Amino acid sequence: MKNFIQTLQNIWKIKELRERILYTLGLILIYRLGSFIVLPGVMPDVLEQATANSNPNDILGLINLFTGGAFNNAAIMALGVMPYITAAIIVQLLGFAVPYFQRLQQREGESGRKKINQITRLLTLAITLVQGGGYLTYIYSLGAVDPNVPQGIFWIANIIILSTGTIFAMWLGERITDNGVGNGISLLITIGIIAGLPQAFAAEFLLQMENSPILFVVELAAFFVIMAATVLIVQGIRKIPIQFAKRMVGRGANQMPVAGVRDYIPLKVNAAGVMPIIFAQALMFLPATVAQFASGASAQASPILRALNDFTSMPYNIIYFFLVVLFTYVYTALIVNPQQYSEYLKRQNAFIPGIKPGKPTSDFIDSITTRITLPGSVFLGIISIMPAVAAAFGVNVAFAMFFGGTSLLILVGVVLDTLQQIESYLLMRKYDGLVKSGRIQGRSSSRLQQIGSGM
């Protein structure tokens, strides 16, 4: 505890780091305040009653989770940064399939990155306008709109407000990234997720104190074990050793050969991150959409649709698990390019010991990636169904959502990334890092750390 307090004091001593942290906290506070300012014309009491029994695992429940409750509050930040995330995913996927976006991402450097950012912002606005109209339709369907407000004014004014809220949230995220600590967009999503944790924890605590306090302790222990395992898999890398060729030092007769430097290529066990779970979850929402729009009672009475709409059912979780495993392999194949590794090594006059340059090198890296993706994909599949497992053991559904899935992976990834930045500031000032034992990813001095984590 003494070392932890000393570390906090060291953080406060570094003026630049202190200002960045305070700046980040200030913008996060502004973002959270926007989650409680209700759209004009909406009746909060009616809306609260209508959303009291909403399913936290359907698509609307997930949006509400990521926006920190702003979605169910009909706040000006109701859509949060989710349209921006959707636009960024679309642009990233276009980079795999469209040559123009491939050139922007790979060959045009900083100018290409600026063009991609501008395209993402424009696409964010377009998505927000569409989603804003759908969201207002949803509010109307709940009967939460004041009948005295003219419908035309309500629609025009609130679509503008929702779009402004999303663009403002995106701007806050970019300012945090530039002048604060951590990735701004990811931090805003994380803060939204964390905002629902105290309420879910308190509800679970009160429930288990009445039933079985020992069971609550077991739940907490299981939660920390799952979180520790998630940290391990997020941090896990497979190091492929490389050797740089010998070079000559000196001039004329004084030239001497110097042995090449040894380094490694860090291949992440979970290179796909949270994307496979997002894609699989999007597909699992389709049965719910079919059931919602299908006419007649037969669709609602169908046992297959009922099972696929229940995230605790066995068919749902079996399909969900295999979809996550499948998308992990697909997304890893898209973002990890063994040919690019091989070309990089050739340009740097480096090689993998025992492996010929060129195609043998790319084939070797591809085989290693395929092998380490298997445990990573299985772990992601297990993490994706852990909320259902926790709910099956009697955990409150709201609290069970934090036992795995998208929320846990985002929390772990963003916290580790933020700690890495703080760690860098401390080490630059010759202070002890946040973690003396172990290693936060990013502290390694490997030259290929960036290329390994960026693919």
Reading off the top of the CATH hierarchy, the class of the largest domain is best stated as Mainly Alpha
How many domain modules? 2
| SS-based class | mainly alpha
Regions with little confidence, pLDDT below 50 for 5+ residues: 295-300, 442-455
Distance between the terminal alpha carbons, to the nearest Å?
38 Å
Compressed to H and E, one letter per element, the order equals: HHHHHHHHHHHHEEEEHHHHHEHHHH
Beta-strand residue percentage: 5-15%
The CATH H-level superfamily of the largest domain is: SecY subunit domain
Oligomeric status: single chain
Biggest sheet: strand arrangement: 4-1-5
Please state the overall shape, judged from the principal axes of the Cα atoms.
globular
Instruction: Please state the average pLDDT score.
Output: 80
Output the number of helix runs. 21
Helical fraction equals 55-70%
- Which architecture of the largest domain would the CATH scheme give at its second level? Orthogonal Bundle
- Topology-level CATH name of the largest domain: Preprotein translocase SecY subunit
* Cα gyration radius (Å): 25 Å
What does this protein look like?
This protein is mainly α. It has two domains: 14-195, Preprotein translocase SecY subunit (Orthogonal Bundle); 197-248 and 257-455, SecY subunit domain (Preprotein translocase SecY subunit). It contains 21 helices and five strands. The chain has helices at 2-13, 15-33, 44-50, 59-66, 70-73, 82-97, 99-106, 109-141, 151-179, 184-195, 197-211, 213-235, 275-293, 297-301, 303-309, 314-335, 338-347, 359-392, 397-400, 405-428, 449-454; strands at residues 237-244, 247-249, 256-258, 262-268, 350-351. The strands form two sheets. A three-stranded antiparallel β-sheet has the order 4-1-5. Strands 2-3 form a two-stranded antiparallel ribbon. α8 runs antiparallel to α9. The longest helix is centred in the C-terminal third of the chain and has 34 residues, at 359-392. It is globular. The model is unreliable at 295-300 and 442-455 (pLDDT under 50).
